[in-house]
Every structure is written in C-alpha cells, then in structure tokens.
Design brief:
The complex is a heterodimer. Chain A is an alpha+beta fold. Chain A has eight helices and 21 strands. The longest helix of chain A has 18 residues. Classes of the chains: A alpha+beta, B mainly alpha.
Chain lengths: ~350, ~230
C-alpha cells in the first residue's frame, strides 16, 4: 500500500499526482513528457524539488509540511532506469551484490530468478541490452525493496528480446510479490503485467483504473492497437509428438494446445502469449476448423482502440477474459455487442511460449 | 653521472614535489568534485579564480606569495610570531609548487567527476549508500583515472616549478635549490654541460610519471572493456 500526494515543479509544468496504490503492478502510462520518469524519481527520493507526502506501508518517506524527507538510501525503493544504469566498473555479480548488504541468499535467488548464471563474471560493457536489464532487475531485487520502480525496462529492446524479458517480469510479480510501478508505452505490456493503470498527461492524472477500462482513453488509443496481447500462465500437461502439439493447463482453468514444445518438462510452469488479432471470433459454433483451441464465450465489452475494436470476451464457466481484436466492419456484419455469445478460436501456432 | 650535490638536488626536488602533490590532493579532489556537481551562483567566479595561477606569470604568483608570507606580511607576521619561518626555506619551495600545481589537479579532477553520470550516483543511493559511500563505491572508482592523471600532471608541474619558487625561496644551493633552479644556475655560471645533464634527468622523471599513468589507465580500460 502506497499513498502518494506529490508536487514536483518542472520546467514546463508542475507534476501533481495524488493516488493510493495497492500491491501488485501499477502501469504508469501516458505520452512522452507527461512526468512518468519524474514520478518514479520523486518516489525514489532523487528529486530535491518534490513536495507533499509519500507513505509506503505505513512508513512516511516524505512529508514536507512535517519537514520530513527520508534520503534515498533509507527508503528501500528499488529503481531500474530505462538504460539499466549498471555500474560499468563492476561485474554483473558485483552489481547485483551492490545493495544486498551481504545477504547472499537474496543475491542467489535474484540471480536465479533472472537466470544470470552464465553472465556473473562479465562487465556491463560486454552485456547485451536484455542482459543488462536482467542484471539491473536482479540488483534491485537483491536490495530487498518494499517498492520497485521500473522505467520502461523493455523500451530499448527489440520485439524478440521483449518477449524474452517479459516472463521474468511476470516471475518477479508472482514470486517476489513486491509492489511495483511500471512505466510503459506499450498497452500489451500493461495488460500482461498490471492490475492497475495510472494514466498521466502533462503532469496530471488523466485516468486511473483497470487496464482494460482505460483501453479507449484518447491518450492511449494511438499506441494502443499495436501489441495488445493475452498473456497466460499455466503448466505443461502432456506432449503429443506425433500430433505435434503440447497441452497446457492454464491457471485460470482451461486447457490449450500449442505447437509441440517437447523440451518443456511435464508439470513445469510456462507463460503463453496470444496476440489479440490472432483470436478469431465467430457468432456460431465452430466446426470443421483446423484451429485446435475453440471456446464458447460471451462478449463482456467492446472498446475502440485506434482503428480497430478490442473485444473483451469472458470464457464460459471460467473466469478469464481474452482480448480479441477485430475490424469495425466485422463488428457491424456480425452484429457484435456486449452480451453476445461467441466462439473464440486460436490456432496452436498462434499461441507462443514466451 | 651526477655529482653528490646534484643527486641531492634531484632527491630534494622529488621529495618536495611529492609532498606538495600529497598536500593538494585532498583539497584538490574536493574542489574538483564541488565544481563538477555544484550548479549555482558564483561558480564561474570560483572557477576563474582557481585557474588564475595557470595563466599568470609564475613570478607574479611568487611576488604575491612573498608579500603575504614575508615577515612583515599579513600571514608571515602571524607565523613569525609562532616561530615559523617560511621565506627562503624549503617550506617556501613546497608552498610555491603546491600553489602552482593546484589548478591542474582541480581541473583534471573536475573533468573526471563531470564524466560520471550523476544518475549512477542516484542509483547507488537507492541501493542503500549514503553520500559518502556512494562517492567511494561509484564516483571515485569511475573517476579515478582522471584524478590520477591530474595528480601526475600536478606532480610533473611541481617537478618543474621555477618562477614562483625563485621569488619566495630564492636559489640557495643545498637549501632551496630544485632541479629547475639548478639548471638555471648552471647555465648562469657557464656550466651548460651540467645544465643539460640535469635537463635530461627532468625529461626522464616527467616521462616516467606520465607513461606510468598511461600504462595503468590503459590496463584498467582493457579489463572493463569500457
């Protein structure tokens, strides 16, 4: 639980944020220059001009009326900037150990969460962008933070690398359970990771709420369309080498066929991704289609996201909501509206292991 | 070969230069850090004042020091009352070389500190370091090459200081005579051959100091790949 009531004077405007955030991941979104990075820096204690109040889990970090401003080293807030910010004179391992105060067990579990084993003796100059981000994430985790601040950790990476880092972020969220503010421009990432979105514009909170509810916000819509993705966690049930498929039981309570991934251990956890535009929508029961995954569902809501429309579809019987992206023309000709029963179909090969 | 007197001059010069460098190292590094980080009024003025000895004729600095430190001068009288004699002693050599070398150290240190990304220092703070620990664990390790280069530069400058030294320490063989002064002295009394030998010694010393720095910083650079 973190209470924020902040004012930070900037050159163009004054950043004003007043909100109360629970645990889990909060995505901080909005156009460039909206004050997202400034907000993170103020929370970390790196902005001298910040005024107001910050209370993190009952402990006051900033209270300017009460003349209290805890210095960054007393806040236990882990910060990962966009470019990772590794110390160039230290090896990856020394970077991870930097803030751990000798807690080798934490260093150990942080390096294993982010799978750094082969990299530990290397210097940052010889690490790739994705490797740097993983080391920076491990360094922040090893310092035992009560709050994580991630500033576009995937922005500098190309699409392939993004998909490889994303599961690490999911692991951090689910296994370390550190509350997290996550700056991103990418709606797909926000949907995949965040339970809550804080939308900033020109230094003000433009909107706040569940990621799906903010999809139609004009601030996001231009960027919203690309990268809307369904991210699912599950365990491997079986491999069918002859049929070329692997069965996965998704945590939310349904099963999926994906392209054969025989290298994944039975019973092992996996993260799956399906692009919203790869989910087919039918108003009639689907028969004789080659897609292996067909589910009855109901449209819970429609949202205009740029040119296209994103449908929120609740699977029958189970809890999860899958996002499907269709053209306005399809909405019109199929007569799609909230409450409509539909069938969703996904090809095994549209479901990617990430 | 060097005569015993000449050997003493070489050792005296090395000793005074080393002591002067050690003396200015803490304030020089501190001044470099402050100038690199401080943004506010008066910065330009302080920078200019600190760099002044670089461009002034050393004899001008010497005469200023002399008037301050002479027995009737404002500082000199205070010191004389406590039985401390500066002018025309080895201490005057030390002060002259320290004053002339200080700006070189400050400038190099400032440049070195300015090259350290302040965000890295901020990150060190979020990872539990107080300001001093952040300086020792991040700023200094990243800036030490520049600081070392500045230190060697200051040392080399101290080895060769002439103008300010001659004004407040004189050129007294066996007491205040450094290499630079001895070369001048030999030339004045027509012993150019000895002056050349001593000049060769100064070239050797300065070369060794600069080359060692180059070697250390290169080796370090290769290891981090930076």
């Amino acid at each position: 639980m973190i209470e924020i009531d902040l004012e930070v004077p900037l050159a163009r405007f004054t950043l004003r944020v007043a909100t109360r955030l629970g645990g889990g991941v909060t995505a901080v979104m909005g156009p460039s220059g909206a004050g997202k990075t400034t907000l993170l820096e103020a929370l970390a204690g790196l902005r001298r001009g910040a005024r107001g109040r910050i209370v993190l889990e009952g402990e006051t970090l900033l209270d300017t009326p009460g003349r209290l401003a805890r210095p960054p080293e007393k806040r236990r807030v882990g910060y990962v900037p966009q470019d990772a910010g590794l110390f160039p004179h230290l090896t990856a391992l020394a970077n991870v150990r930097f803030g751990a105060r000798g807690a080798e067990a934490r260093v150990e579990s942080a390096t294993s969460t982010l799978e750094l084993r082969g990299l530990l003796e290397r210097y940052p100059a010889s690490l790739s962008g994705g490797e740097k981000q993983r080391v920076a994430l491990a360094r922040a985790l090893a310092s035992d933070p009560r709050l994580l601040l991630l500033d576009e950790p995937l922005a500098a990476l190309d699409v392939g690398l993004r998909e490889r880092i994303l599961p690490y972020l999911v692991r951090i969220r689910d296994e370390w359970r550190v509350p997290c503010l996550y700056v991103t421009h990418n709606v797909g990432e926000a949907l995949a990771l965040a339970g809550h979105v804080l939308l900033l514009r020109d230094g003000r909170v433009e909107g706040e709420g569940a990621p799906l509810d903010l999809l139609s916000s004009p601030v996001l819509s231009r960027e919203a369309e690309a990268g809307i993705e369904n991210l699912l966690r599950g365990v491997v049930l079986s491999h069918d080498a002859e049929g070329g498929v692997t069965r996965v039981r998704v945590d939310e309570g349904f099963e999926l066929s994906i392209g054969l991934a025989a290298d994944r251990a039975l019973g092992g956890g996996v993260t799956l991704a399906v692009r919203a535009e790869d989910v087919l929508v039918s108003t009639e029961e689907v028969r004789g289609l080659s897609a292996r995954n067909v589910y009855p569902a109901r449209i819970a809501g429609l949202q205009r996201t740029g040119v296209d429309v994103t449908l929120r579809c609740a699977l029958e019987g189970a809890g999860p909501v899958l996002l499907a992206r269709v053209t306005p023309a399809a909405v019109r000709s199929l007569g799609l509206e909230a409450g409509c029963p539909v069938w969703l179909a996904m090809k095994s090969h549209s479901v990617r292991l990430v | 070969m060097l005569s015993p007197e000449e050997t003493r001059v070489v050792l005296f010069t090395l000793g005074v230069a080393a002591l002067a460098t050690l003396l200015i190292l803490p304030p020089g590094v501190a001044a470099g850090l402050l100038l690199a980080r401080y943004r506010g009024p008066g910065k330009g003025l302080v920078e200019t004042l600190l760099s002044l000895p670089l461009v002034l004729p050393p004899t001008a600095v010497g005469i200023l020091l002399l008037s301050a430190l002479a027995r009737r001068g404002p500082l000199g009288s205070w010191l004389a009352a406590r039985g401390i004699e500066i002018v025309f002693t080895w201490k005057a050599v030390l002060i002259a070389t320290a004053v002339m070398s200080f700006p070189l150290l400050v400038r190099s240190a400032r440049t070195a500190f300015e090259e350290v990304d302040p965000r890295l220092v901020g990150l060190a703070r979020t990872l539990g370091c107080g300001p001093t620990a952040a300086f020792l664990r991040v700023t200094l390790p990243l800036a030490w090459r520049g600081v070392l280069a500045g230190t060697v530069l200051a040392f080399s400058r101290a080895l060769g200081e002439f103008g300010a030294t001659v004004m407040i320490a004189g050129n007294i063989p066996g007491r205040t005579q450094t290499l630079a002064l001895a070369i001048f002295h030999d030339n004045q009394i027509g012993r150019d051959d000895r002056a050349l030998v001593l000049a060769g010694v100064t070239v050797g010393l300065a070369f060794a100091a600069l080359w060692t720095t180059e070697w250390i910083t290169r080796r370090r650079a290769r290891r981090t790949g930076a």
